[in-house]
TrEMBL record:
<protein>
    <recommendedName>
        <fullName>Gamma-soluble NSF attachment protein</fullName>
    </recommendedName>
</protein>
<dbReference type="InterPro" id="IPR011990">
    <property type="entry name" value="TPR-like_helical_dom_sf"/>
</dbReference>
């Protein structure tokens, strides 16, 4: 059972890494991809919630909300 939750936490951390990658800018990418980052943060939050890592899930959901607010894209 612990191995499954460790696997889900690793999956969540990978999604966090990808979300941070979407938010970075570079020479050819001038604007961050907030929509892609929000999707990755949402996947990370789901993985953390499944692993019972609720603090990490909460932080990921907060980042999703902040990005959706910045994009003026609400779920309701």
């Amino acid at each position: 059972m612990a191995a499954k939750s460790d696997q889900k936490i690793a999956e969540g951390l990978e999604h966090l890494r990808l979300a941070d990658k979407y938010l970075k800018t570079s020479l050819f990418k001038w604007k961050p991809d907030q929509d892609g980052a929000a999707a990755e943060y949402l996947k990370a939050a789901t993985a953390f919630r499944n692993a019972k890592a609720l603090d990490q899930a909460k932080e990921s959901y907060i980042k999703v909300g902040e990005l959706q607010k910045a994009m003026n894209a609400y779920l309701f």
